[in-house]
């Protein structure tokens, strides 16, 4: 995982540094892109290619694209009009360093430039580019991450049902994780059945990721997770522990992890890396 993370983190700045754009905007974009994190989404792109026995280098542009989308969403999530957070990954949030207006523009810049990262790749077909962009639009837009964020904001201070909570997290968190896997399958020229199986696997790990996030919000170490513990409760959000109890949430996490692993076994791929990443999602401390 560390070797892939280094590859992605070497490539990400190159996507921004040569832009013909104001230096302050580029600095703001790079500040959040370079802030660290697990790089789980881009690594999933590469891991999926490995599972299909393909060259992982094919996935670097799509990996950078999904990380740019993820980073833009974090910049906007942290704004005072949304979660109003001061820390992200243990560092001051973008708007605390560059101001709210520049933070909004940095997020906008990362969102739009993510598509250019895919379009600029010469080693894949025009059809693959179109499929990758179509999937990324669906995963990040109103029917995906943005829609999930909107539902999340509307749900603050309300007692949500489990199905309402799952809708939020399938869209807000799960869609981009699933995109990473689907992108890898598209680049590997996988069959439609294999792509559908990756979608199902992605939905399970997306929900597992969010359940673990909710558990860490009540049991985690602030230094490790890089943001204040208890922020969900302070913001009046329904979480898996608040609906199911802490133990019930842990049971739900285990059920999604087991279902994800079962799907991998069913696909009969060279899946050991994806299997290990699934365990990481279940056991992570940050």
Automatic annotation (TrEMBL):
Protein name: Farnesyl diphosphate synthase
Catalytic activity: isopentenyl diphosphate + (2E)-geranyl diphosphate = (2E,6E)-farnesyl diphosphate + diphosphate
Gene Ontology terms for molecular function: (2E,6E)-farnesyl diphosphate synthase activity; metal ion binding
GO biological process: terpenoid biosynthetic process
Organism, as annotated: Metabacillus mangrovi
EC top class, as a word: transferase
UniProt xrefs under InterPro entries: Isoprenoid_synthase_dom_sf, Polyprenyl_synt, Polyprenyl_synt_CS, Prenyl_diphosphate_synthase
Superkingdom of source: Bacteria
Keyword presence, Metal-binding: yes
A Pfam cross-reference name: polyprenyl_synt
KW Transferase (keyword) present: yes
Cofactor: Mg(2+)
PROSITE patterns named in the record: POLYPRENYL_SYNTHASE_1, POLYPRENYL_SYNTHASE_2
Any one GO cellular component localisation term in the record: cytoplasm
Alphabetized NCBIfam families for the sequence: FPPsyn
EC number(s) reported in the record: 2.5.1.10
Entry keyword set: Isoprene biosynthesis, Magnesium, Metal-binding, Transferase
Family to which this protein belongs: Belongs to the FPP/GGPP synthase family.
């Amino acid at each position: 995982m560390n070797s892939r993370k280094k590859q992605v983190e070497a490539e990400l700045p190159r996507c921004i540094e040569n832009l013909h754009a104001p230096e302050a905007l580029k600095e703001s974009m790079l500040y959040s892109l370079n802030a660290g994190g697990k790089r789980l989404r881009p690594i999933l792109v590469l891991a999926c290619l490995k599972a299909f026995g393909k060259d992982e280098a094919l996935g670097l542009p799509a990996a950078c694209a999904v990380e740019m989308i993820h980073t833009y969403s974090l910049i906007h999530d942290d704004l005072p009009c949304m979660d109003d957070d001061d820390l992200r990954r243990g560092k001051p949030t973008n708007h605390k360093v560059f101001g709210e207006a520049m933070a909004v523009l940095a997020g906008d810049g990362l969102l739009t430039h993510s598509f250019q990262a895919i379009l600029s790749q010469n080693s894949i077909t025009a059809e693959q580019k179109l499929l990758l962009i179509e999937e990324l639009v669906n995963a990040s837009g109103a029917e995906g991450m943005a829609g999930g964020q909107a539902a999340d904001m509307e749900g603050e201070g309300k007692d949500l049902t489990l199905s309402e909570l799952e809708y939020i997290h399938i869209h807000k968190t799960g869609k981009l994780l699933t995109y990473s896997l689907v992108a890898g399958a598209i680049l590997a020229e996988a069959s439609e059945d294999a792509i559908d199986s990756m979608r199902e696997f992605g939905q399970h790990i997306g929900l597992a990721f969010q359940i673990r996030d909710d558990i860490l919000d009540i049991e985690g170490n602030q230094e490790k997770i890089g943001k204040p513990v208890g922020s969900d409760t302070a913001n009046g959000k329904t979480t898996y522990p608040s609906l199911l109890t802490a133990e019930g949430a842990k049971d739900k996490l285990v059920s999604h992890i087991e279902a994800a692993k079962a799907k991998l076994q069913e696909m009969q791929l060279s899946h050991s890396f994806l299997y290990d990443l699934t365990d990481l999602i279940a056991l992570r401390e940050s």
